[in-house]
Amino acid sequence: ALVLSVWLGRGRGDLSSSDEVRRARELAQQSGHPHALALVDLLTALAGYLNGRYRDALAHCAQSEQRLREHGLFGAFERENVELLSLACRLDTGDFRGLLARSHELTRDEGRAEADMLTPFLAFAHLLADEPDLARSVLGVAHESAASEPFGAQSFQALVAHAELDLYLGDPNASARVERAWPLLERSRLLGIRALRTRARFLRARAALGSGYLMPHQRTRLVGLARHQAALLGKEDSDVSRSFSVLIDAAAAELSGERERAIQLFGEAALSPEATGMHAQAALAKSEQTRAVNL
Questions:
Q1: Within a 13 Å sphere around the CA of 240, how many CA atoms are in the beta-carbon half?
Q2: pLDDT tier at 141 (50, 70, 90 boundaries)?
Q3: Cα–Cα distance measured from residue 114 to residue 32, given in angstroms and rounded to the nearest whole number
Q4: Mind listing the pLDDT tens digit for each residue in 70-100?
Q5: Could you tell me the sign of the dihedral formed by the alpha carbons of 228, 231, 236, 242, in that order?
């Protein structure tokens, strides 16, 4: 009951310091029941994810899944949330190889009740495999919410997936798509969750830069929008958010012709794995720094 209470109220506050989480762990340890212990592991994974500790979250997801499978307790609720958290952590840290492998694993089980929630991650996996047409086909079952419909987590994941496809294809309307949805996102409670707020601002900045690159007449405005999102990310008490902030600032500097500043910032972004484990983003930053130096 404590786990479900905190889980359903997961948009509020820092779960890692929640009295309910501590109490749930104490009760689970006292009972020694594998299902109780596995649920608390899952709750701890959620706390880690919401507060930007993705590697910790992945470890707790794996521990929860192992307990549940060993004791035949891997039901629909547990399975769905373990898988969604696992995929989200891999996406946000840039563990694209792990995301691709896990997505292929999940697609072997057809007709899943949680298929709609997994769709955006599966679409991203198709982009990793250089299959944009398949990504678009997969996203045909996921739709962006109209203004009159509630904008929830599933709508947000669909927005992210569609915007990633836009960026992959070099669509200059990537930023316009995100900006159309932004008022809906602001009216929802999703931006109160640090992990989603971080992903949303990083996406908004990247979409602005991508569109700015393709539309020189709009570049000044769009670079300004990206830099504003970077400033907001930099104020978050999270190594992940700050790493994203530096990466966006570096890309904005490069797009604005500020070569020396771009080289410096890409160098800073390349150091992020020490704190965050975001190796793919760091490799990208290092590559961009080298390219800027050689221009």
A1: 25
A2: low
A3: 29
A4: 888 877 778 878 888 888 888 877 788 888 8
A5: positive
Residue 293 CA: distances (Å) to CA of 101, 155, 265: 35, 40, 12
For residues 292 and 250, is the Cβ–Cβ distance under 8 A?
no
Residue 34 and residue 22 in contact, taking contact as beta carbons nearer than 8 Å? no
Measured between alpha carbons, how far is 48 from 59 in angstroms, rounded to an integer? 10
In this predicted structure, what is the pLDDT of residue 109?
61
Q: Tell me the C-alpha distance between 55 and 156, whole Å.
A: 23
- Measured CA to CA, the distance from residue 44 to residue 269 in angstroms comes to 28
Contact predicate 162/177, CB 8 Å: yes
Residue 146 CA: distances (Å) to CA of 19, 167, 264: 38, 22, 42
Between CA 5 and CA 15 the distance in angstroms is: 12
Cα–Cα nearest to 43, from 90, 9, 88, 94: 9
Closest CA to 199 of 225, 164, 165: 164
CB atoms within 10 A of CB 124: 26
pLDDT tens-digit map of 236-288: 988 888 889 999 999 999 999 999 999 999 998 888 665 566 777 777 788 88
